[in-house]
Amino acid sequence: MLQTGRNDCIETDFTMSLTLTDIDRLANLAKLELTSDQGTRLLGQMNAFFDIVEQMRAVDTTGIEPLSHPVAAIEDIQLRLREDVVSEPNQREANQKSAPAVENGLFLVPKVIE
Predict the structure, then answer these.
(1) Contact present, 107 and 101 (Cβ < 8 Å)
(2) Does the pLDDT of residue 88 top 80, yes or no?
(3) Residue 110, CB-side half-sphere exposure with 13 Å CA sphere
(4) pLDDT band at residue 22, thresholds of 50, 70 and 90?
(5) 50-66 core/surface letters (b: 16 or more CB in 10 A; e: else)
């Protein structure tokens, strides 16, 4: 099911599986060189992962409240979170002294996406 942002859901009959062409494209995007054996093995592993996801999606979780922590399923716990307060002084200028390029308090980095 897909959540629409309102209180209703859309039923979907969507099963994900990849082809060797998909694996080749993903490898190219990731700048990986895969042999045909590696591509075939990766295809099997990825499709096995999607099969597990489909099994999980098939479980009816209606009325199940999400857990704030996995241990909460077996015992009553209280999360010990620290206060969200600033505890260190601002040392931006000192930290940016060794940077090759800075502008308006931000690090400048070379463009890496074509």
Answers:
(1) yes
(2) yes
(3) 3
(4) very high
(5) eeeeeeeeeeeeeeeee
- pLDDT at residue number 16: 79
Dihedral sign from CA coordinates of 41, 43, 47, 50: positive
pLDDT at 44 over 50: yes
DSSP state, residue 111: -
Q: Which residue has the tokens 């930290």?
A: 95
Return d(Cα 101, Cα 91) in angstroms, integer.
17
Q: Would you state the pLDDT for residue 6?
A: 42
DSSP string covering 50-108, please?
Answer: HHHHHHHHTS--TTPPPPSSGGGGTS-----PPP----S---HHHHHTT-S-EETTEE-
| Distance (Å, whole) CA 52 – CA 35 | 26
Under the phi-then-psi rule, with left for phi > 0, alpha for psi from -120 to 50, and beta for the rest, what region is 22?
alpha
